[in-house]
Amino acid sequence: MLRSADFKRLSFCAAAVWGVVLLAACTQDSVDACATYAAPGISVNVVDTAGNSGNVLNVKIVVRDGIWGDSIDSRTRNVTSFSTAYERPGTYAVTVTGTAVKTFAVTGVVVQKSGCHVRPREIIATMIPQ
Fold first, then answer.
1. Which of 7, 37, 57, 92 could disulfide-link 109, Cβ–Cβ 3.0 to 4.6 Å?
2. Environment class of residue 9 by beta-carbon count within 10 Å: exposed (0-12), middle (13-18) or buried (19+)?
3. Contacts from 31-34 at CB under 8 Å and sequence distance 24+?
4. Rounded to two decimals, what is the model's pTM?
5. Which residue has the higher pLDDT, 103 or 10?
6. How confident is the model at residue 100 (pLDDT cuts 50, 70, 90)?
7. Cα–Cα distance, 98 to 6 (Å, whole number)
8. Which DSSP string corresponds to 52-77?
9. Does the pLDDT of residue 40 top 90, yes or no?
10. CA 123 to chain CA mean position, Å
């Protein structure tokens, strides 16, 4: 399936055919330059003060951009990492709460579009005991 970016590349290829000199730049690779996977905008990894992820349980991870939001609660699923905001540029706030740990919060996490995909941002949330 062709995306709008593909039409721009195909337009370039069609123009290259008329300009003969640029014909070599028009290859199948230039049409298929974008991968078909979806890139996460935000990945949150929850660790303890020693940097270990396996020791942190019972946390809730919330990612928000305006009214849009996504979350996961490890009290119902045993997780210490969370990827979300797939192909969604924006400015995010990330909050991680848990039992007997201080709340981790960061705001202003900017996810930008870069070519075909967003540029993923990784957040390391260190859980500090209360």
1. 92
2. middle
3. 31/6, 33/9, 33/116, 34/3, 34/5, 34/6, 34/115, 34/116, 34/117
4. 0.71
5. 103
6. confident
7. 45
8. -STT--SEEEEEEETTEEEEEETTTS
9. yes
10. 11
Question: Beta strand pairing status for 113-114 and 81-86?
Answer: unpaired
Helix (H, G, I), strand (E, B) or coil at 4: helix
As a whole number, mean pLDDT of residues 45-70 equals 89
CATH fold of the domain at 40-126: Immunoglobulin-like (2.60.40)
Question: What does the alpha-carbon distance between residue 111 and residue 95 come to, in Å, rounded to a whole number?
Answer: 16
Domain range list for the chain: 1-34, 40-126
Question: In the structure encoding, which two tokens stand for residue 19, read together?
Answer: 């300009």
Confidence check: pLDDT of 33 > 60: yes
Give yes or no for residue 77 having a pLDDT over 80. Answer: no
Bridging pattern class, strands 121-126 and 40-47: parallel
Q: Count Cα atoms within 13 angstroms, Cβ side, for 20.
A: 0
Which residue has 């119902």 as its token pair?
76
Burial of 6 (0-12, 13-18, 19+ CB in 10 A): middle
